[in-house]
Write a structure and sequence with these properties.
285 residues, alpha+beta, 5-stranded mixed beta sheet, 15 strands, 28% helix
């Protein structure tokens, strides 16, 4: 059986009690480079022309209005902007194509936030023996790690759970690629499953979910902003193990044992991560 792991603080108890895993929008993940490609446009004039082909009410026209308005270059309303420029599309195309790459709407930096309104990521690890992971995600080795059977049906939803590929350079996106082109389809895959090699120790596997999916439940998180959280439910048989950290408290262990007393968890193995006597190694017993 192949096992994947969820590193948790003491709030891992909620995973066991509620039988659901959090799905996180990319802009809430701890890597600031998530879904931020190296974007360029090899044919700015051609791309500018295409985005205006949607017509005067098209997305491209509104995007260009927002670009001009936010920089104080046009202070009127969008309707006024439409009336003024409805017969001057070629002029707008020329202006858009010549805009500096770091300010042009062809290179919009809001992509991450837009994606995060539509999609969320389920993040798991292929290993439980990395002390950095315990330190980062388990309240300084006070937490726990939950092991899941990777063959469980939950991990086959959508395109399924897949390992992250760690790379040295950022994913490239040419905004001139046509919708449906092999280049764009390859990019859409890479932006999800490629990460900076600095994160390789996480040995991450991840799964993409549409936040509108009926498979997800939605409820406010326990934070000061009451942020809306997204969760994917799973059957109890998907869990195969619970590992307590090398500094776990008796109180946490008692709570875990109490939960695992339920008949539905009779198959779950409970063990402990312990420090090797002489090496920087975690053992499990």
């Amino acid at each position: 059986m192949e096992i994947v792991y969820k590193f948790c603080s003491k709030y891992g108890l909620e995973i066991l009690r509620n039988l659901e895993l959090k799905v996180t929008p990319p802009n809430q993940l701890n890597d600031p480079f998530e879904f931020t490609p190296n974007t360029f446009c090899s044919d700015a004039a051609g791309y500018a022309k295409r985005i205006f082909e949607h017509g005067i009410d098209g997305v491209g026209f509104k995007k260009f209005y927002d670009y001009r308005h936010s920089r104080g270059k046009y202070l009127g309303t969008f309707r006024e902007f439409q009336e003024k420029y409805k017969d001057k599309i070629p002029t707008l195309i020329a202006m858009l194509a010549k805009a500096p790459q770091d300010t042009s709407p062809l290179h919009d930096k809001s992509f991450l936030d837009e994606v995060s309104k539509q999609y969320g990521i389920l993040c798991l690890s292929q290993r439980r023996d990395k002390i950095l992971m315990w330190g980062h995600y388990c309240d300084m080795p006070l937490g726990l790690v939950i092991g899941f059977d990777k063959s469980s049906a939950i991990f086959r939803l959508g395109n399924g759970l897949r390992p992250v590929i760690y790379v040295q350079t950022r994913v490239v996106c040419d905004q001139c690629w046509e919708v449906g082109s092999p280049e764009l389809l390859n990019y859409e895959n890479e932006i999800i499953f490629h990460k900076n090699a600095d994160w390789a120790y996480e040995a991450e596997s991840r799964q993409l979910f549409a936040l509108s999916s009926s498979s997800l439940s939605k409820k406010p998180l326990k934070d000061e902003n009451r942020t809306l959280g997204y969760f994917i439910p799973f059957p109890p048989e998907a869990i195969v193990s619970v590992t307590l950290g090398p500094r776990n408290s008796p109180e946490l262990e008692n709570e875990v044992r109490e939960i695992l007393q339920k008949p539905c968890f009779a198959h779950v193995k409970l063990d402990h991560a312990v420090l090797h006597k002489s090496a920087f190694v975690l053992e499990f017993e």
